[in-house]
Amino acid sequence: MRTAALTRRVALEAFAALALAACTPTQPPAAPPAPPQPVEQPQAAQQPNPEADRQLLEAADSGDLAQVRAALAAGANVESRDDDQRTPLVLAALADHVEVARELVAAGADPNAADYRQDTAFLVTGVTGSVGMLEALLPANPDFTLLNRYGGTALIPAGEHGHVEYIRAAVRTGIDVNHVNDLGWTALLEAVVLGDGSERYQQSVQILVDAGADVNIRDRNGVTALQHAEADGYTEIARILRAAS
């Protein structure tokens, strides 16, 4: 009897074990390991090429477009500097090499890079009066608020020199026509005080007035552009300013 009971117990335990195994969910096989991802290799930094930089600066200064392209292709730094801290773009602007400037702008040249005199390529255009250069620089989004060593915008020396067509183009950029430089003058005041009252200065004054120049701004001595014009005998300029007052 005892042997039969023991045999029956062993059979029942075996049956229970088989039943438990049947109810236990089967574990899915482990996923295979993901393949290793390729590691992105850092790009090698461009090696300095002083000779190409020198050639680029010389070519920009002389207006040699083919040599500018060759120097850039050889790895020249478009922001290289000469002894006066002038970039190729500043040199091109000073010499009014418009096609060279376009090439440099397309290569990523910074229109706001300043030389030792605080001149940028765009500020230079106010002195040269080059509309072509101004237009060549616009795709590079120059900063119209940057100031030259006299604390003035590009528009102020343009007023001094009576660059009629340049002033006409510059006021369309949104440049501040009423900025006062460190000498206490606006573009309008410089067109009157430093001009000679001739037709080009008359036109310059009219364009500035039409663009919103404030005729009531006074210089450091408290004198308006109209008062200067009257004192200097600039009859036509005085008429324009009187009509705008």
From TrEMBL:
Lineage: superkingdom: Bacteria
Ranges of compositional bias, category Pro residues: 26-39
Keywords tagged on the record: ANK repeat, Repeat, Signal
PROSITE patterns named among the record's database cross-references: ANK_REP_REGION, ANK_REPEAT
Skewed-composition ranges (Low complexity): 40-50
Membrane-spanning parts: none
Record InterPro entries: Ank_Repeat/CDKN_Inhibitor (IPR050776), Ankyrin_rpt (IPR002110), Ankyrin_rpt-contain_sf (IPR036770)
Signal peptide: 1-21
Each ANK repeat, start to end: 84-116, 150-182, 183-220
Disordered: annotated segments: 25-53
Keyword Ligase: no
Annotated Gene3D superfamilies: Ankyrin repeat-containing domain
Pfam families: Ank_2
Protein name: Ankyrin repeat protein
Organism this protein belongs to: Saccharopolyspora kobensis
